[in-house]
Design brief:
12 strands; binds S-adenosylmethionine; 289 residues; 2 domains; 22% strand; Rossmann fold; alpha/beta; 7-stranded mixed sheet
């Protein structure tokens, strides 16, 4: 079934499914995304469908009829258009306790990091998406707290996509987004709230206050932070980058880690990591020498 839509601006009826995305326009969008976010989208049927399906939603939103019109608007529009484009083309899939062995590992090393580095434990979640990952890190730090009562764990959660970051900062989730969170943690660290007649789960202050949310593009040429981090999670984002970009990002991440600190990547991302300053510890976990 095809969807016939009304153009809000002109009142004309037209069929979005029939709007053709030429290979030339595909390449323009793909190159723009690569330049902005490092996301590598070679011309394949899957990527063609991805760009077509996601940008067609923006055509609707802006009452435009062709990808060419959208391209002109993107080129002449300001930061908001660019930010919306990035949001449309990023993949934000995430869940609580995803690749859960990483949180067992974190719980086991936090007391050791506390002994080594003192009270201020600084962690960074560098592709935080809608927040399930940083809240899982915060819950893990709370679970480790009895073994390090004087520690003050702090977490910076960043993402290039401002829309997911905004959601993450609210810490509010629908039932379907709570997937992966065991019942005990659910009631210990989240509370039920009602808004507009619907029920949501909201992160309690104990974990919410541990996290600071901020935009950050991993394509930044240099990562400049006041202090080194003791743990960095950068999971399931390198898969979208090509080899030279991945290498550059890893070099930058390593430069932000304190010696003895840990870098945690996604399970499927560890194949590309050959850094002389990193010692493999367990699956996709590295320690800075
Ligand atoms: C698939 S999600 C992974 C979320 C989470 N780390 C996890 O493992 O569940 C990938 C995230 O990386 C973000 N991302 C993509 N390119 C980025 C870049 N250049 N800088 C920062 N974040 C980026 C996306 O916006 C998205 O939220």
């Amino acid at each position: 079934m095809t969807a016939v839509k009304k153009n809000e601006a002109t009142g004309a009826l037209y069929d979005f499914e029939d709007i053709k995305l030429t290979d030339k326009m595909f390449m323009k969008f793909a190159e723009r995304m690569y330049d902005l976010a490092g996301v590598d989208l070679p011309l394949t049927p899957k990527n063609h469908a991805l760009i077509r399906n996601r940008i067609v939603k923006l055509l609707r939103r802006h009452s435009l009829k062709t990808y060419e019109e959208y391209w002109s608007k993107l080129e002449s529009g300001g930061n908001e258009m660019v930010s919306e484009f990035i949001s449309a083309l990023t993949t934000n899939m995430t869940s609580f306790y995803r690749e859960s062995n990483h949180f067992d590992f974190l719980k086991s090393v936090l007391p050791e990091l506390h002994r080594k580095f003192g009270a201020d434990l600084r962690m960074w979640c560098a592709a935080a998406s809608t927040g399930q990952e940083p809240y899982t890190i915060a819950m893990t730090a709370c679970e480790a707290q009895p073994e390090m009562p004087s520690a003050k764990p702090r977490l910076l959660a960043t993402d290039i996509d401002l829309q997911v970051l905004k959601k993450a900062s609210t810490g509010t989730y629908e039932e379907r987004e709570m997937q992966g969170l065991p019942p005990v943690q659910r009631t210990k660290y989240f509370e039920k709230i009602k808004a507009d007649g619907d029920e949501y789960w909201r992160a309690k202050d104990q974990i919410h206050n541990m996290i600071r949310f901020a935009p950050f593009n991993l394509m930044n040429p240099k990562y400049e932070f006041q202090h080194k981090f003791h743990v960095i999670f950068c999971r399931n984002v390198l898969i979208y980058f090509d080899e030279p970009t991945t290498k550059r990002v890893i070099d930058n991440l390593v430069s932000c880690l304190a010696p003895g600190g840990y870098l945690v990547l996604g399970h499927s991302e560890s194949g590309n990591v050959k850094h002389p300053g990193l010692k493999p510890m367990s699956r996709a976990v590295y320690q800075k020498l």
